[in-house]
UniProtKB/TrEMBL annotation:
Main subcellular location: endoplasmic reticulum
UniProt topology in membrane: Single-pass type IV membrane protein
This protein's name: Vesicle-trafficking protein SEC22b
Location(s) in or outside the cell: Endoplasmic reticulum membrane; Endoplasmic reticulum-Golgi intermediate compartment membrane; Golgi apparatus, cis-Golgi network membrane; Golgi apparatus, trans-Golgi network membrane
Membrane spanning stretches: 163-185
Longin domain mapped to chain residues: 1-90
Lineage: Eukaryota, Metazoa, Ecdysozoa, Scalidophora, Priapulida
Amino acid sequence: MLEYQNQAKMLFRKINEQSPIRCSIETGPYVFHYVMNAGVCFLVLCDQNFSKRVAFSYLEDLRNEFDQQHGSKVQSVARPYSFIEFDTYIQKAKKNFTDSRARRNLVNINTELQDVQRIMVQNIDDVLQRGEALSVLDDKASNLSTMSQKYKKDARYLNLRSSYAKIGAVVLVVVLFMLFVRYWLF
């Protein structure tokens, strides 16, 4: 184990801001997995046959908990072991992630999360389709508004024409009546 502790120390020295934020490095029968976040490196050493997904889930769990408990204090740390009390959470999480029942539970939770993700994607697709249908409906409403304005304009024109025809008919009847009275009666 001393050899792997030395390798971990060397790895910590080589990791910098340009390093990938998630990485796995093989070393003999073991694999180092690490996650970087805001200048803090979370590192775990696992057997090669240990699930990579579970290892990164463990690291993400540690990262989230550390951010909640100590995230704002990281930049102001003056001594090397300022967060030693976080070790109790690390041990508890380690036990949960290495326990086979907990791993089965994690697999079940991941399956449920994938189901929820699938349902959410379907819901988003449905909303997008409704949006397209609403766009079509909006276009039809706009066309209907344009057509109704044209109908209103045409109706006014026809009413005006009809009024002119009625006035013309009345004027014609009056003129004929006057002509009739003038030539037939006198």
